[in-house]
Task: structure prediction
Amino acid sequence: MRILVVGGGGREHALCHALRREDPDAVLHAAPGNPGTATLASNLPIPPDDIDRIADAADMLGTDMVVIGPEGPLAAGLADRLRAEGRAVVGPNAAAAQLEASKAFAKEVMAAASVPTAASATFTDLGEALAYVGAHAEPLVVKASGLAAGKGAIVCATRGEAAAAVRAMLGEGKFGEAGRVVVVEAFLRGEELSLLALTNGTDLEFLPAAQDHKRLLEGDRGPNTGGMGAYSPVTLATPELLGRAARDVCLPVLQELRRRGTPFSGVLYAGLMVDADELSVVEFNCRLGDPEAQAVLPLVEGGLTDAFWRIARGEAPSRLHVADRAAVTTVLAARGYPDQPERGAAIHVPDDLGAAVTVFHAGTSRDAEGTLRVAGGRVLTVTATAPGFADARQASARAAARIDFAGKQFRRDIGWREQSRRQEVGWRSS
Result:
């Protein structure tokens, strides 16, 4: 099979790693890829949002299937263009991708589908938004409606903080076009859970559940980021909860999108808040999460390529074969991340990190001499798998500490809630 993976981050490296592991003989390309994907696929120097050149490359290479990683090209209509040219594509069309590209649209869909989510209001006028914030209970959340690289949601402890966030978006242009529409919503209490479902728009096949760590600092403090680490599986995601999520969240949303004439096909990401018996949607994404993909995909022992191929052709996804293991992923970020990451530092990755450790490249490049250097905010993701959660967690943190570059930031407490939960209920933890 000839497969083209679109994107150049850690998620796309994890995709190439999983696809290559399942099919060593596949002809694999990545556009643009990164130094990590270069060891698994042929990199094409094409930006992921250059729709014309990607479509031309898919044609020239005789590509059987295109797997689109990032949300930007999906919202811009890359899947539409490729499907119109007869390609099998993993990823929704532009209209369905608005589920992630417009939080205001997502709220409309959820309301129409009776999907539980935080009460909210949407604004384009600064004065109206400030008046609403001034009368809203604390705490509250202010979100840029558009795509903001995972940094557009601001949790505000006070109305004053929320008013400042609204002014920054609607008054000062923070987040640019993404912040021209603002959603203000009630604060949800509980624990977040990431559910990733492969779907043809009607049928679902869940990947292992994951939990992401959005805050920069240990103990879940500091500013929101694109994600500082993730782990899977999550004991919070019981079969009963997954059944409810499918019945009350994913299937109603898919049905509503079909009703609107914009059926969703690809990977549906449901970011949930779980509080005792309450289940609410925080957000939807239209692709694999990052860094969740780097934690989840190494646990899939087989069936991913076939499931992708089936949903790309409109068929129900086949069953995935998932290992009875745990995976923990630690993100190594550049100095200054998330606001002003510094680029250029040389990176040293030891050769002896262990067979159960995989280092996925996210923001790296090689200079003219072949030296690996920092080229983005999130630089590397370090995934360790093990039969027990505690061992995977320890191995990921240990390997992350051994990788070296100037200004490296990382959290040593990825999975701390899960570790506490397993110890409390007597789960195997080693």
In short: The radius of gyration is 21 Å. The chain has three domains: 2-93, 125-180, 191-425. Residues 239-259 form the longest helix (21 residues). The first strand starts at residue 2 and ends at 7.
